[in-house]
Amino acid sequence: MSNDWQAGRLDSDLQGAAFDTLAVRAGQRRGPEGEHGEALFPTSSYVFRSAADAAARFAGDVPGNVYSRYTNPTVRTFEERIAALEGAEQAVATASGMSAILALVMGLCSAGDHVLVSRSVFGSTISLFEKYLKRFGIQVDYPPLVDLDAWRAGLKPNTRLLFVESPSNPLAELADIAALAELAHAHGALLAVDNCFCTPALQRPLALGADLVVHSATKYIDGQGRSMGGVVAGRSELTKEVVGFLRTAGPTLSPFNAWIFLKGLETLRVRMQAHCASAQRLAEWLEGQPGIRRVYYAGLPSHPQHDLARRQQSGFGAVVSFEVDGDRDAAWRFIDATRMISITTNLGDTKTTIAHPATTSHGRLSAEERANAGIGDNLIRVAVGLEDVADIQADLALGLAAL
Ligand SMILES: *Cc1c(COP(=O)(O)O)cnc(C)c1O
């Protein structure tokens, strides 16, 4: 029509386009103003042409927006772009990473279902299953991430879902995603992967056989520590159940945050490459330092799953954890001696962060649970940002000197 010239390239022109092209362009539809940047639609509702049009849209007979809890054009652009990057039929955006996990389970599981969750998942994910979902009749067990036999042995007739985070936080353990997918499918269950630490720039779980991918967009998808959000992506026969829960229960993504994440996605690959390059350098440097007992980073040949990481990921991520010689006091001295790096448990920011897992993210576990999870009192986690790597290293050297 008259505005076709402004619409510019259509999605059909992106058929076969590579990751970086999709990251910049997928999902955008230009409006009558011919705007080059993605439009932000801060609107809660939409106007109908007539009473009959309203009735048809409410009935679902005619496509179109009704209310932003259901659909919003900016959110849709973000969903289509992340679906393109994950190689998913459909993506659904949520208000946070946790609401993505909640919506996934509420959409796809019922009372009486059994779920296997990898033991080393994000602390709030464990709380969600243990404190809340269990109350509604969902049974949960926690096999160790790397132990395929334990996953096999943990399957029950009513196992509906396998949920893993790979690489894990903070020890960078990996799930063999293809092997777990095979196990799940042979049993008629689904495999969901929290792909937060790698992003689709480094790992594409659906291509490895997973059924669903979950993200905390708060981390690397934003990439600059500004806003909260989440995503569930997969086949539309599955994601439509997640959409159904979301539009009813309400933890949908705000259009403002969707717009920020769109901008984040445009630079995702180059940011992840820079994050990984600095993390690799720092991990190699730390591994040779006196005072450092062990470094956990899948990019090091000393990592027990280095080969799996090379097969499964196109980069090793930006989280480097290490044990110092000594106890909790030594770890705290190290952390407190840094000057530039931010003491915070967040990650996926341009700013490098440092944290003591045993007394923060994993502080609510008992000492025994922490020991089982391999989280020592002398463990420090660094999420490497985008500052000059020499400056990050110099700051970590202050920590080393304090040991
Ligand atoms: C942060 C995080 C979450 C939760 O996401 P929020 O956006 O904070 O709700 C889930 N999984 C992983 C691996 C995370 O790092």
Automatic annotation (TrEMBL):
GO molecular function, one term: pyridoxal phosphate binding
Any one Gene Ontology cellular component term annotated for this protein: cytoplasm
Cofactor(s) demanded: pyridoxal 5'-phosphate
Pathway: Amino-acid biosynthesis; L-methionine biosynthesis via de novo pathway; L-homocysteine from O-succinyl-L-homoserine: step 1/1
UniProt cross-references to CDD domains, sorted A to Z: CGS_like
Annotated EC: 2.5.1.-
Top-level taxon in the UniProt lineage: Bacteria
Claim: Transferase is one of the keywords in the record: yes
Keywords assigned by UniProt, alphabetized: Amino-acid biosynthesis, Methionine biosynthesis, Pyridoxal phosphate, Transferase
GO biological process: 'de novo' L-methionine biosynthetic process; homocysteine biosynthetic process; transsulfuration
Catalytic activity as recorded in UniProt: O-succinyl-L-homoserine + hydrogen sulfide = L-homocysteine + succinate
Positions of modified residues (N6-(pyridoxal phosphate)lysine): 219
The keyword Nucleus is assigned to this record: no
Pfam families: Cys_Met_Meta_PP
Subunit details: Homotetramer.
Family according to the record: Belongs to the trans-sulfuration enzymes family. MetZ subfamily.
Entries under HAMAP family matching the protein: MetZ
NCBIfam families given in the database record: O_suc_HS_sulf, PRK08133.1
Function comment: Catalyzes the formation of L-homocysteine from O-succinyl-L-homoserine (OSHS) and hydrogen sulfide.
PANTHER family noted in UniProt: CYSTATHIONINE GAMMA-LYASE (PTHR11808:SF80), TRANS-SULFURATION ENZYME FAMILY MEMBER (PTHR11808)
Protein name: O-succinylhomoserine sulfhydrylase
